[in-house]
Amino acid sequence: MSVKRVFLLLCIILFGSITVVEAKNFSYWQVHNMPQGVEKDYYIWRFLSQPTTTAFQATDIIKEVDHLNKKLRVAYKKKTGLNAPAPTKKVSCSTKVTDWKRRSEANRYFKNGILLLQQNQLQKAADAFYEAHNKYEERWERDKCLFWLYLVTKDKEYLTELKKSYHINMYTLLAADFTKSRYPRSIVVPNVFKRSSYSIDAKNPIHWAKVKAKMNKPSTDLEDLADDCKSQETIGMYCYLKAKACNYKKSYFPMPYRDIMKKFSKERQALLYAIARQESRFVPASVSRSFALGMMQFMPFLVEHVAKQKGERIDLDDMFNPKKAIEYADYHLDYLEKYLTHPLFIAYAYNGGIGFTKRLIRQKNYFRRGNFEPYLSMEKMTNVEAREYGKRVLTNYIVYLNKLGKPTRLLPYIEMLTDPSKTDRFRK
């Protein structure tokens, strides 16, 4: 037995379990040869954080960064004492700029509509929502405007139009609830029997980076590429590509890892699935720009915190294992559910933190009874990421409860948001 193992064993006997976040070592050439992208950025950060990496190597590898985030800046400065150089900017094509300007205008109209509602200027609010609807290009954003036009005018034609939408979102589900109709039929739960793809390691971020690179080539047939990823282990990649291939006319709701999930209640299964679908589309090797990791997109600090609580030794790359990602997410959800009992608020906390959620819902002008509530509170949040994330996770949750054999409608979950006794333990 090595000296290190003897020391650790003695420490465990004397002091209890010890948590160490283990660190794999990566060579300069390993990282250098990775394809450009956020996955390589993550491994550049790992490389910069290694004690063995030299300042000279750091100044060389930092030039290969695609997106310079705070973690990279801090690691680089700690290694070299210098500020990291900005990566070369990519020039956006003019059509994208035009689309972005149009969406920005639509956002202004919609935001103004929400402000006018709060001033009880209903006709002006309706006009603003109508203008926003005409400018938005994304289907879910147009659906949002149609929903608010119905709330303001009570004209059921807007609900009729909403029910024609192929998109699965909070607004289309509520349109079905208001009219006592079936939920949209564009929900797809794929059945995949092949266990794995021989050429793709689902737990390897670099393999996923290569799939994305192929996906973005104009010459690539997305249906063929999806077929290459058609296996149980790569179900996330498969559904991601299938959705893109049909221009998101169908909504894929895979239900993988049934052997792991079956031990949980249906509510917990639905919540884990709902979050995973929103966080990563079930791609185990996902890496975000802020280096949230894996299928459940755990931030490194949270990985370390949960590992410490569980008394485990872990490397950050272990989050690319779906079993470990689900285990850690389940542990974290246990903590969140000590204070929050509604899936929307749990989603806010998963995305923005429990402190953020507590401050939000304890404000007197949020999630209280009143005109257009709780819809108004769900739209006027200033944290745009948490706002949209919460709505999508809640929608996913309802879909998955139904797919798990528990018939559920969205409207009752919306209606309980203004009743603290049914949603959280922060409000009295």
Describe the protein in words.
The protein is an all-alpha fold and 428 residues long. The chain folds into four domains: 63 residues, no CATH class; 89 residues; 69 residues, no CATH class; 163 residues, Lysozyme, CATH 1.10.530. Helix content is 56%, strand content 2%. It has 22 helices and four strands. Strands 1-4 form a two-stranded parallel sheet. A two-stranded parallel ribbon has the order 2-3. α3 packs parallel to α5, α8 runs parallel beside α10 and α18 packs across α21. The N and C termini lie far apart (57 Å). The N terminus is likely disordered.
DSSP strand (E) fraction?
under 5%
Q: Which class of the largest domain in CATH terms?
A: Mainly Alpha
Summed up, the helix count is: 22
Give the CATH topology of the largest domain.
Answer: Lysozyme
Provide the low-confidence segments as ranges: 1-20
Biggest sheet: strand arrangement = 1-4
Q: Work out the helicity level.
A: 55-70%
Structural class: mainly alpha
What does the overall shape look like? globular
Largest sheet: 2 strands, parallel
What is the straight-line distance between the termini? 57 Å
Task: Produce the secondary structure layout.
Elements: H1 3-15, E1 21-22, H2 28-32, H3 38-48, H4 55-61, H5 70-80, H6 94-118, H7 122-135, H8 139-153, H9 157-162, H10 170-178, E2 187-188, H11 205-215, H12 222-228, H13 235-245, E3 251-252, H14 258-261, H15 266-280, H16 300-310, E4 314-315, H17 322-336, H18 343-352, H19 354-361, H20 375-380, H21 384-403, H22 411-415
Parallel strand pairs: 1-4, 2-3
